[in-house]
UniProtKB/TrEMBL annotation:
The keyword Transmembrane applies. Keywords: Membrane, Transmembrane, Transmembrane helix. Pfam families: VTT_dom. It comes from Thermovibrio ammonificans (strain DSM 15698 / JCM 12110 / HB-1). The keyword Membrane applies. GO terms for cellular component: plasma membrane. This is SNARE associated Golgi protein-like protein. The lineage of its organism: Bacteria, Pseudomonadati, Aquificota, Aquificia, Desulfurobacteriales.
Amino acid sequence: MSGKGILSIAFWKGLAAKYGAAALALNAFIEAIFFPIPPDVLLVTLAALYPDKAFFYAAVATLFSTLGGVVGYAVGYVGGRPLAEKLFGREKVLKVHRLYESYEGLIILLAGFTPLPYKVFTVTSGVLFASLRKLIVFSLIGRGTRFFAEAALFYFFGPQVKSFVTQNLNAIFLGLGVITVLSFLAYRRFKKGRLP
């Protein structure tokens, strides 16, 4: 088993076809920590093969991606914070932590359902000692939104939506992410403007 094989999308599609939910669980878990192949690849493969089980696969991907996110958080918490403080200084890290803390729920939510690299934000949350509870809650919401949306398309429309999902869904979720951010900023500005 070569490193190139493990890092290829074809390898993981084959693994999904052979081992089903177990392969999806493994991929979703390690992708949330360091791995480059997103769970969507396996989820789409399995949902196209078995549309009637699409929601089950979405639940597996959501659960194990969130669990992987907790491990990513632990990696950042244990090893990343001392390294960041050594490289940038404690005061700068604390300053970034305070800024991140104000938006961490929104950041994790966006990383969960947009094409943003989810693993970067799980580890960063640990480095900055962000709220683990928020990480779990917003990961479940963000990852669940993405994976269950994909599953719903296959469940209701069948394998023929595969090309639509693979070609368009990232752009759709990115657009929703932009709308979410703009709505959040508008709400914050409106709320600030109403304060005496």
